[in-house]
């Protein structure tokens, strides 16, 4: 199965993607995680992306399309994959279609902007492995420490309130039109994001089983 998770930053698509990925034993491909890893490693792509990420802007289409093309060509994507954070613009979606990749379902997780702003301020990420947590909704076993690797949990710099507003504006302008794009292809399914992660997951799994 080839699935796309759509939604505003902080709507919970990354969390849903991880859960479904485990259930279906297919990898999650997160452009955000790939870019952050490149940034941490100081690769040329990472250096190019830094200013965009820190301003809450999108990294240019040609850069992310290149990343995705390479990643989806890897062996573990042969039996399907979940895309988290890609596509984020119409040209990115068109590029995916042009690669001949046939997506089965697009799950759009809907959460009001007010809720997003509150959620992102409570989000914490592992400095070391990039796993993400939330001080209310997805607590690590030990406060401030990553369950997966023991790394320190920090606030992502682009989760600062001013940057969040810019990311939301970018989402509405550039990413939201993808709903109509996939609606036209008959692939769009909407999930109302719930207060509790498990409740959202139940809705997501139900849609994927249909
Ligand atoms: P979130 O969904 O929480 O906003 P991500 O981790 O998906 O965060 O992305 C973080 C940042 O990485 C984005 O704000 C953007 O700058 C960049 N990015 C990730 N995916 C894409 C993409 N498909 N196109 C352009 N930029 C991207
Ligand atoms: Zn970690």
Sheet with the most strands, sense and barrel status: 5 strands, parallel
For this structure, what is the CATH class? Alpha Beta
| Model regions low in confidence, pLDDT < 50 over at least 5 residues | none
Q: Span from first to last CA?
A: 13 Å
Neighbour order of strands in the largest sheet? 2-3-1-4-8
Q: What would you report as the Rg, rounded to the nearest angstrom? A: 16 Å
CATH superfamily: P-loop containing nucleotide triphosphate hydrolases
Look up the CATH topology: Rossmann fold
Ligand list: adenosine-5'-diphosphate, zinc ion
Element-by-element helix/strand order = EHEHHHEHEHEEEHHEH
Instruction: Report the structural category.
Output: alpha/beta
Shape: globular
Percent helix, as a range, is: 40-55%
Detailed description of the structure:
This protein is α/β, with parallel strands linked by helices. The chain has nine helices and eight strands. It has a single domain, classed as P-loop containing nucleotide triphosphate hydrolases (Rossmann fold, 3-Layer(aba) Sandwich), CATH 3.40.50. The protein has helices spanning 13-24, 31-41, 44-55, 61-72, 90-98, 113-121, 161-175, 177-184, 197-209; strands at residues 2-7, 28-30, 81-84, 105-110, 123-126, 132-134, 153-154, 188-192. A hairpin with a 5-residue loop joins strand 5 (123-126) and strand 6 (132-134). Helix 6 (113-121) packs across helix 7. Bound molecules: adenosine-5'-diphosphate and zinc ion. Zinc ion binds at residues 126, 128-129, 131, 146, 148-149, 151. Adenosine-5'-diphosphate (ADP) is lined by residues 9-10, 31-32, 35, 52-53, 57-59, 64, 85-86, 88, 92, 158, 167.
């Amino acid at each position: 199965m080839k699935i796309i998770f759509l939604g505003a930053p902080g709507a919970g698509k990354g969390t849903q993607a991880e859960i479904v990925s485990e259930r279906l034993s297919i990898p999650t491909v997160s452009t955000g995680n790939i870019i952050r890893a490149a940034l941490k490693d100081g690769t040329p792509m990472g250096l190019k992306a830094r200013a965009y990420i820190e301003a809450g802007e999108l990294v240019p289409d040609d850069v992310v399309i290149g990343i995705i093309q390479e990643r989806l060509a890897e062996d573990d994507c042969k039996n399907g994959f979940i895309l988290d954070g890609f596509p984020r613009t119409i040209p990115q979606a068109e590029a995916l279609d042009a690669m001949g990749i046939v997506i089965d379902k697009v799950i759009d997780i809907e959460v009001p902007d007010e809720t997003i702003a509150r959620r992102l301020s409570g989000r914490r990420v592992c400095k070391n492995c990039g796993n993400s947590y939330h001080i209310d909704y997805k607590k690590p076993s030990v406060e401030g420490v990553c369950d997966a690797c023991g790394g320190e949990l920090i606030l992502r710099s682009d989760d600062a309130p001013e940057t969040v507003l810019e990311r939301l504006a970018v989402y509405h302008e550039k990413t939201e039109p993808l709903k109509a794009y996939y609606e036209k292809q008959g692939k769009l399914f909407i999930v109302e994001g719930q207060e509790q992660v498990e409740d959202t997951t139940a809705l997501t799994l139900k849609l994927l089983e249909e």
